[in-house]
Amino acid sequence: MKLENHWESPEYIHQGHGFCPGCGFIVAFRHILKEMGADTILAVTAGCLGTNSGMFPTSPINVPAYNTPFASAAAAGTGIRAALTAQGNDHTQVMAIGGDGGTFDIGLQALSAAAERNEDFIYLCYDNEAYMNTGVQRSSATPLGALTTTTPKGDTKDRPKKNMAAIMEAHAIPYIATASAAYPDDLLAKIRTAKNIRGMRFLYILSPCPPGWGFSAELSIKLARMAVQTKLFPLYEIFDGERIVLNLEPPPIPLKDYIHTQERFQYFSEEEIQKMQAEVDRNWKKFKARVTS
Hints:
Blueprint: H1 24-36, E1 40-45, H2 48-52, E2 65-68, H3 73-86, E3 93-99, H4 100-105, H5 108-117, E4 122-127, H6 164-169, E5 175-179, H7 184-195, E6 201-206, H8 210-214, H9 220-229, E7 236-239, E8 243-246, H10 255-259, H11 270-290
Parallel strand pairs: 1-2, 1-3, 3-4, 4-6, 5-6
Antiparallel strand pairs: 5-7, 7-8
Helix pairs in contact: 1-7, 3-5
């Protein structure tokens, strides 16, 4: 799926948003909204998007968007879809959006309930691996050993990152996909696939965060690409909880190249990096054994 026609479509993110320079999510979100189009309603929970999408009465988002309490993006998406259905409207797309805090943690109950009911909307998770909007606090998406303001030097995170895609897979929903701003063709193809499926669809995007991860803003897309190339963040799709499609098997690069680019891993020893590399290798091997096409 190529980008040529995509660039001709209207823009739905305008100047004036409050996202940090180099934010990986806003780059991806611009493409996502261009592909979703005007016939879309958003349910946006608290977080980077909820805070930085504009202060009332202005917003840089040029589609209807409802700001919801932190725990309720999926519940709001459910309600909006039900209201449209009651009106006989089965064409408007509903997209609920949360960061890792609003998805992995605070919003998990509502998301799981909506997934179990197979509610008909798209859920978009942008994962910057901590509570970035409130000062870089640890979330269950924070990687093992990463520095945050609540896991400082000497007391870094001692638990592995929660596998949110696997949790959603356990609900056997129609569609799950991982995506990256560094691979826009793949991202757009997945948005188009999701739009043509009914029921719950879960899109999961890794969102490099310059101030939270500790890197220079111009490196954001490079880091997003490196996460895929190191096989730390594979690009894949899962259909109906059964068919798993691997979208890209990149030539591998060492995980240490990714680690050394970020200040949040600055205290990692070579031994710790090798342990992390071994874990990535094990996870990739297990994942590849499950791929069906």
